[in-house]
Amino acid sequence: MEELQMLRDLPAVANVSKDRITYSNAFKQVCVIRYLAGESPTKIFREAGLPPELIGYKRIERSVARWKAAVLKSVSGSSDMSNGEIITELVNLYVHAVTRKEKLDGIAGIANPDKANIGNAPHPLDRANVSGGGVYIR
């Protein structure tokens, strides 16, 4: 159970149970952008404090493939775009979503927790309706 607490403390993790990890939306977004830029999924997870030996190499690969497919569906015209163009579009969508949320929170008089915890900010993966966002822990 020490491993579960270690995972709970990571910004990349939204929720952990004894048999499932749900990743934060921001981590999914950053992971896909870095993957499209040519980085290894295993390296991305490791740098986020998620050891592949615990998560599982195949689970990492499958998660990134699932998130990438969801993101590509959310980017209009992505089949004709280069990875660089897709990355630019994703970053623009993310910045737009965060800015819109901050404006709405300001109008409503709500303190914006996203400034302290960007991991909960909205992003294109929210629009993509990603299902099965977690992976099983061995």
Using only CA atoms, what is the Rg? 15 Å
The helix/strand class is mainly alpha
Subunit organisation of the chains: single chain
Q: Tally the helices.
A: 7
Distance between the termini: 13 Å
Summarize the amount of helix as a percent range. 55-70%
Q: Which parts are unreliable, with pLDDT below 50 for 5 consecutive residues or more?
A: 114-138
Instruction: Identify the overall geometry.
Output: flat
Order of helices and strands: HEEHHHHHHE
For the secondary structure, the number of strands is 3
Biggest sheet overview: 3 strands, antiparallel
Features:
three-stranded antiparallel β-sheet, 3 strands, flat, 7 helices, mainly alpha, 138 residues, single chain
What would you note in describing this structure?
- The protein has helices at about 1-10, 25-35, 40-45, 50-55, 55-75, 85-110, 125; strands at about 15, 20-25, 135.
- The chain is about 55% helix and about 10% strand.
- Helix 2 crosses helix 5.
- By secondary structure, the protein is mainly alpha-helical.
- The chain has a three-stranded antiparallel β-sheet.
Task: Annotate the secondary structure layout.
Layout (H helix, E strand, L loop, with lengths): L1 H7 L4 E5 L2 E4 L1 H12 L4 H7 L4 H4 L1 H18 L8 H26 L15 H4 L6 E2 L3
Antiparallel strand pairs: 1-2, 2-3
Brief description of this entry?
57% of the residues lie in helices and 8% in strands. It has 138 residues and is mostly helical.
